[in-house]
Specification:
Elements (H helix, E strand, L loop, with lengths): L2 E5 L2 E3 L5 E8 L2 E12 L6 E7 L4 E3 L7 E6 L4 E6 L8 E12 L8 E2 L3 E5 L2
Parallel strand pairs: 2-11
Antiparallel strand pairs: 1-3, 3-8, 4-5, 4-9, 5-6, 7-8, 9-10, 9-11
Length: about 120
């Protein structure tokens, strides 16, 4: 069974930087899209950024100048580099994968990581 394992969250001061990573494990053959969503307390989960296996990226407007997504297809890993962080970036960040194919299964539903907390505070 495929699992998405996130790492890299934590506490950072306003204006600081943080990098997240997410590795998909489980006999994977390919993943079409990988990306990040976030959910702040009392708010709905929202898209942060996504990247296709071909490297096409998408960003939420409020983050595209500060966040950079990248991906290592060979290692089934997606990264999110965040700079100039603001208190409003505080949220649980979730790794997301769509179009996952393993050697034994084609996933017709989206997969999610367990989430990693990012807190921006002085």
């Amino acid at each position: 069974q495929v699992q998405l394992v996130e790492s890299g969250g934590g506490l950072v001061q306003p204006g600081g930087s943080l990098s997240l990573s997410c590795k998909a494990n489980g006999g994977i053959y390919s993943i079409h899209d990988m990306g990040w969503y976030r959910q702040a307390p009392g708010k709905e989960r929202e898209l942060v950024s996504s990247i296709s296996s071909g490297g096409v990226t998408d960003y939420a407007d409020s983050m595209k100048d500060r966040f950079t997504i990248s991906r290592n297809n060979a290692k089934n890993t997606v990264f999110l580099q965040m700079i100039d962080l603001k208190p409003e970036d505080t949220a649980v960040y979730y790794c997301h994968a769509r179009g996952v194919v393993t050697r034994t299964m084609v996933y017709d539903y989206e997969l999610w990581g367990q989430g990693t907390q990012v807190t921006v505070s002085s």
